[in-house]
Amino acid sequence: MQTPYSNPKEARSLNDLLSLKGRDALVIGGAGLLGGEISYTLAELGARVIVASRDKGKCQTFVKQLSERFKGDHQALGVDITDRNSIRKLCEEASKVTEGGLDILVNTGWSGRKNTFESISDEDWDLDIEVCLNGVFRTIKSAVPLLSPRNGVILNIASMYGHVAPDYRMYDSERFANPPSYGAAKAGVIQLSKYLASFLAPQGIRVNCISPGPFPFESTQLENPDFIERLKAKNPMGRIGIPIDIKGAAGLLCSDAGAYITGQNICVDGGWAVW
Amino acid sequence: MHKHFDLTGKTALVTGGGGILGKGFCKVLAEYGASVVLVDITIERAKKACEDILQNVPGAQIMPLACDVADKDSVTSMVNSAVRQFSSIDVLLNNAASKADDLNAFFAPFESYDLDLWRKVMSINIDGAFLVAQAVGGQMVKQGNGGSIINTSSIYGVLAPDQRIYEGSEYMGVAINTPAVYSASKAALIGLSNYLATYWAEANIRVNVLSPGGVESGQNETFKKKYSARIPLGRMGRDDELHGAILFLASDASSYFTGQNVMVDGGLSVW
Q: How many domains does chain B have?
């Protein structure tokens, strides 16, 4: 039993609370724009990071870079989160790496499809929900037996469009449009996080999500500067997000520094949803 | 369905009943059969509003009363007069809000905002809602028939203003903005409503919030244009566009509805 109130002399320092030394993390989509930044964050705080996505080659290249900056037995694995067997295999492989158990699971995967309400097909819709929502559910379902013995942490990456609608005037072409399935799936992720925060609490597992604001790819920034200007003008802080902006929230929620935080949706959005 | 919205036999008390929105609220309540107690800061304002309503709704049961909602004694005697006249109160609209007497001071920059003015506005917008809810809610508990309390908040009790829309914006010839005291007091009303929704649930007193977006009432073209550009429906609201929500919240049409905040904002809060 912990003492009810910390003795200042014995209390853990913030550095210590943030430390992930000796922890094992699995980051789905961990070589992507925000997933990659989160992988870096967890490795920097001392965790061993297993990076997994559809593109195992990309994960391997990424892990090579990651290991150069932060030493540790980081690993790259392949997974298709639309396939239950593939997830089961991933969990088995991850469990071999960690010798059983997992401390941190981060879900950042998304389908990458672009369309509008007019152009979206049933197949587009199904795929987006399959990856962004069902994939998160399936991954968590498979990983909980690994997380449970270690009182692990789950972090899901949702989106501002999981709780506010996009302004249709932002978009000048389908290539940059926000698909109708995306926000629906992300809203589902926010609620699933709350549900699991409740039902996994008895196992000592915390579940939170981060709702990032506008974090356009570099290619989008180069290709459509006008769109970027519209995003900036819409945002109270007057700028788009850069990947490093996600680090603090990810570190807080994945470490003991956030030990009493569960079921929350932290908006890292430059104030997007505040007005 | 019509009878769900019928207010015949009910008494509604509306504070700020002589104001831009309040007068319309009183009118619609009277139209649907309620006896209305129209409360405003001076008896002249209250009487004038009652006369206007009687022209539109002949035969309306409507009674003007003066009350300073920030003053407990004034509230007590106002509620006593209302109960003496109509013997019960079934619906309360806490709608009184202050823009202060000096518009320039009310719209002053945050850095130099006057504490006394802050307190004065708070005393009406939130203390007043507390005092009137206390007196009327207490009366409703005593009556034992439940009731409906509606507090008028604002989008700015939920969302922050975009300061860029105030450049060149005027209201009644004065440069305007949304002062922090307005946002803070309107947010407080939402907290009070949620609290009372559970506190009085057992007494079947339902407590809800109406949060209007910007309603056209004499703002200049610059403001209207800038404000409208932020709204999915692309325009400001009209005061009569709040009436459906008021009637819904006041009547038995919302008998299973409590602790909610109805945003009538043209979609602003959606993106």
A: 1
Q: How close A189 comes to chain B (CA, Å)?
A: 18
Per-residue pLDDT tens over the stretch B217-253: 999 999 999 999 999 999 999 999 999 999 999 999 9
Q: What's the CATH number where B72 sits?
A: 3.40.50.720
**Domain around B43:** 2-263
Q: What is the mean pLDDT of residues B180-184?
A: 98
For the stretch B138-157, what's the b/e string if a residue is b when 16 or more beta carbons lie within 10 angstroms of its beta carbon? Answer: ebbbebeebbbbbbbbbbbb
* CB-CB under 8 Å, A274 with B160: yes
Partner-chain residue, chosen from B162, B232, B270, that has the shortest CB–CB distance to A275: B162
pLDDT > 80? residue A8: no
Please report residues of A whose CB lies closer than 8 A to that of B162.
236, 275
ipTM of the complex: 0.81
- What percentage of chain B carries pLDDT values higher than 90? 96
| Domain assignment present for B269 | no
Q: The domain A21-270 belongs to what CATH superfamily?
A: NAD(P)-binding Rossmann-like Domain (3.40.50.720)
Domain ranges of chain A: 21-270
pLDDT single digits (tens) B117-172: 999 999 999 999 999 999 999 999 999 999 999 999 999 999 999 999 999 999 98
Asked if the C-beta of B162 comes within 8 angstroms of chain A's C-beta atoms, the answer is: yes
Inter-chain Cβ pairs, chain A and chain B, closer than 8 A: 16
pLDDT in tens, A126-166: 999 999 999 999 999 999 999 999 999 999 999 999 999 99
Query: What are the CA-CA distances from residue A158 to residues A138, A187, B250 (Å)?
Result: 16, 7, 38
The owner of tokens 């909610």 is: B260
Look at residue A268 and give its three-state secondary structure.
strand
Q: What are phi and psi of A179, to 5 degrees?
A: -65, 145
Q: What is the pLDDT of residue A1?
A: 46
Domain annotation covers residue B270: no
Decide if B270 and A164 are in contact by the 8 Å CB cutoff: yes
Domain contains B208 = yes
Contacts of A275 in chain B (CB under 8 A): 159-162
Token pair for B198: 């559970």
Q: Which of A167, A236, A274 minimises the CB distance to B271?
A: A167
* C-alpha span between A139 and A102 (Å, rounded): 13
CB contact under 8 A, A236 and B161: no
Please count the helices (runs of H) and the strands (runs of E) in chain B.
10, 9
CB nearest to A165's CB, from B160, B161, B270:
B270
